[in-house]
Amino acid sequence: MxxxxxxxxxxxxxxxxxxxxxVPYVVNEGDGAFYGPKxxxxxxxxxxxxxxxxxxxxxMQMPQRFDLTYVGADGEKHRPxxxxxxxxxxxxxxxxxxxxHFAGKFPLWLAPVQVKLLTVTEKFTDYAKxxxxxxxxxxxxxxxxxxxxxxxxxxxxxxxxxxxxxGIIGERETEARSLTVRSNKEGELGEMAIHxxxxxLVEEIASxxx
Length: 210
Known about the structure:
The chain is α+β, with helices and mostly antiparallel strands.
C-alpha cells in the first residue's frame, strides 16, 4: 500500500526516533506490516529466549484511504499520520512470559499476593486480621489464612503459591505485637515488629527491586 516515498519517510522517522533516544536497533527488511514499517520490542527471558511483545507502527495509508485531514497552524488542511501502539502485545501472553520468567516468584511490587498471614490456631484470628488491616492501609496486597488447619500444612501451601512474604502469628507474636517472617527469596527472617515489617515492604516496593 502507498508509495515507496511514503514507506521510506515512515521508516526514516522510526530510525531517527530510536537514534534520538539512544536505543540500539536492527533493521529487519521486509518484516513491516503491509500498511507501514514498525518497531518491534523483543524481551529476553531468564533462559535466553526472546519474545516479541510491544510494537509501534507508523501508518500513512489509513488516513489517506479514509481521507482524513486536520487544519494546521497555517490554516491549511494536512494529512495526519496514524500511530498504532501495542505496549504488551497480547496481555495474556505477556503475563504468561512474565510468570515463566520469574518461575512464579514475582518481585514484590508485581506479586498479586505480597504477604500471606498464617495463624497457628484460631485463637489468634483477631490479631491476624488487625495486622492484615495495617498492611492493607499501607497499600500492601495481603491475604489472611485463619483456617483451622495445621500450621505446617498452611505454610507448605503458601510456599507452593510462591507468596513473596509469609507472616506466622502465634502466641508469642500476639503478645509482642510482632510476626515471624519468611521471604521466598531471603528465607527465614525471624521475628519482626509490625512497623519494621511494613517499612521493609514499602521500601522494597518503592525500589522496584527484581
